[in-house]
Specification:
A two-stranded antiparallel ribbon has the order 1-2. The chain has a two-stranded antiparallel sheet with strand order 3-4. Among the domains are: 175 residues, no CATH class; 220 residues. The chain is 61% helix and 1% strand. The longest helix is centred in the first third of the chain and has 33 residues. It contains 27 helices and four strands. The chain is mainly α and 575 residues long.
């Protein structure tokens, strides 16, 4: 035997080891340990992977035993007081582990899906205090990626799964980014099953969770927007708004006249219980959006800009309309969005025709009423009657006037529409004056607020007829003149509003006179109406008219003889 040849073939150099380690061997010689070395390394990696899977399965089993299951909540009718409570430290560790296991690109799809099932269970049951705290430990990009995993699941609350069969086996572009439809439906099923029976809508717990997360810090708010939360709110509003639509001819189309095949139209819902449910979820959506509009904190100004840009990109007529070309965030209904497309004249025709339809229906009901039959429901209170839209609009107006965020120049178009509608409502002929009286009180609130609401009302009055101006100013001047003898509700409400906004030292009558004179300076029709509404008696009661009032009457003195007499009357106070 040639011992030298054997020794040579048995030598394994360092270069040979570099072959499987770095793929840069300088030799093609194979020693007897080369293949076994590769096998040992591969076996070690497989063992590590196996141990990791065992550890993950063990951790999921432990989490499952610690967290209360949806079934335990169902057995207690949603009451968690009978469910074992987990210490905060332990719960925080569980949430940290679940969030870690849900991370994209770190774990396979099955692991992430299982982790998200537990997370969706916490969200559905509104037990998200520790979860929110753990999420905020992450940077903004990680939060956005995490939310992007859940956000596509929620619109399925309104989608018919049969219409998406073609997507049932489709994953994301890279097979990992998104779950397929089946997996998303499973997440949604866990989310729904964990909710309390007291929940009025499936979407509300998720909206509340995102709102709480957005309130924690600026990075979380930005991540919420980047993850598509505003798109989700658009879907909410599309499916849960007032179930009517208005075409550009200003006519009301009931649900029975709609094309049933149209996926963009909402179904008419005459069930007052269902209407209440829709109202609850829309209110939750509006509360969520208000998080981004709260400008009390200095770091939120940029968030508002981001929200406005995102809304504009979405062309978000579905939710909170625009003013001019900029998307604004007034909490207005779909009906108000549609009406915003009409000219003032056609807008007024719509409301008057709507009310005439209601009045005719009520008159028919009174004519056919028989003694002993159930009492006739007031048109204002019928959930299926068009007049309810007037009441809904008044409720909407009350919200806008109560939030100063909306009293800014960019919202002037929507404030103009509000004042215009209120003047129309004041002129409606009704047996019950509640709607007209309430509308007048909201107009007084616009005057008392000053600023953009008062400017909007002034612009509406300038474009209105002599009769509209006369009626409006007389309804206010007469109660103000009687304040010393009788405090009528109109005067009382106006005085309270002025002093609430400007303090007790502000004279409400002087405030109203300033507004009236601002209107009068805009055109002579308004000035004549104000004079005919007996403004001079109000000036006399005050005793000292402002100098600009005297100047105004001098400028208009050539118009009417009555104006000349008023000028002499006012001049007496400056002699």
């Amino acid at each position: 035997m040639n011992h030298n040849a054997l020794e040579t073939s048995s030598i394994v150099t360092s270069e040979t080891f570099d072959t499987w380690e770095t793929s840069s061997s300088t030799s093609t010689a194979w020693g007897p340990g080369a293949l076994s070395g590769r096998a040992i390394k591969s076996l070690g990696e497989a063992s590590l992977r196996g141990l990791e899977k065992i550890a993950i399965r063990w951790r999921f089993a432990k989490i499952k035993s610690d967290l209360p299951s949806p079934g335990s909540r169902d057995r207690h009718h949603g009451d968690t007081t009978h469910v074992p409570q987990i210490p905060n430290e332990k719960l925080e560790k569980i949430m940290d582990d679940l969030l870690e296991l849900s991370r994209l690109d770190y774990y396979d799809s099955k692991v992430r899906h299982k982790a998200l099932r537990f997370i969706m269970m916490q969200i559905g049951s509104r037990e998200t205090g520790q979860l929110t705290g753990c999420i905020t430990k992450w940077p903004r990009e990680e939060i956005m990626i995490f939310l992007s995993e859940m956000m596509p699941c929620m619109p399925l609350l309104w989608h018919d799964s049969s219409s998406s069969n073609s997507d049932s086996n489709r994953s994301g572009d890279d097979g990992e980014t998104n779950f397929n439809l089946k997996e998303r439906l499973e997440l949604l099923a866990v989310y729904r099953s964990s909710q309390s029976p007291r929940e009025t809508h499936d979407a509300i717990p998720f909206i509340v969770f995102i709102s709480q997360l957005a309130e924690t810090k600026a990075d979380a708010r930005r991540a919420v927007v980047d993850a598509g939360f505003l798109r989700f709110l658009a879907t909410v509003h599309k499916h849960c708004s007032i179930p009517v639509r208005v075409d550009l001819e200003g006519t009301l189309n009931r649900g029975k006249d709609r094309d049933k095949g149209s996926g963009s139209d909402m179904h008419m819902n005459n069930d007052s219980g269902a209407a209440s449910v829709d109202r609850d979820v829309v209110e939750a959506a509006r509360d969520a959006l208000s998080v981004f509009l709260d400008t009390d904190s200095g770091d939120r100004s940029t968030d508002i800009d981001v929200v406005l840009r995102e809304c504009k990109a979405l062309q978000m007529e579905l939710v909170w309309p625009r003013s001019g070309e900029a998307v604004e965030l007034l909490p207005l209904s779909t009906l108000s969005c549609k009406l915003a497309q009409l000219t003032p004249m056609r807008r007024g025709v719509f409301w008057r025709d709507l009310w005439q339809t209601t009045s005719a229906s009520a008159a028919t009901a009174r004519r056919t009423y028989q003694p002993g039959s159930p009492a006739i429901m007031s048109p204002r209170l019928s959930s299926s009657d068009p007049a309810k839209l007037v009441v809904d609009r008044l409720c909407e107006i009350a919200v806008v006037l109560s939030i100063k965020t909306y009293h800014r120049p960019k919202c002037s178009k929507d404030l103009f529409d509000i004042c215009f509608d209120l003047l129309v409502f004041c002129d409606m002929n009704t047996e019950d004056r509640d709607i007209a009286d309430l509308s007048l009180l909201y107009l007084l609130q616009c005057v008392a607020l000053g600023g953009e609401p008062a400017i909007a009302l002034r612009d509406v009055l300038v474009l209105s007829s002599y009769n509209v101006n006369l009626d409006f100013f007389y309804r206010i001047i007469y109660p103000l003149l009687r304040m010393k003898t009788e405090l009528l509700p109109t005067a009382q409400k106006f005085c309270q509003e002025v002093q609430y906004h400007y303090g007790p030292s502000k004279n409400p009558i002087n405030h109203f006179i300033d507004f009236a004179m601002d209107v009068a300076t805009r055109n002579q029709t308004c000035a004549r109406a104000i004079l005919d509404a007996d403004i001079k008696s109000l000036l006399s009661a005050m005793g000292r008219p402002a100098p600009h009032v005297l100047m105004l009457f001098h400028e208009l003195g050539s118009e009417r003889e009555e104006v000349r007499s008023t000028v002499f009357f006012c001049s007496a106070f400056f002699v």
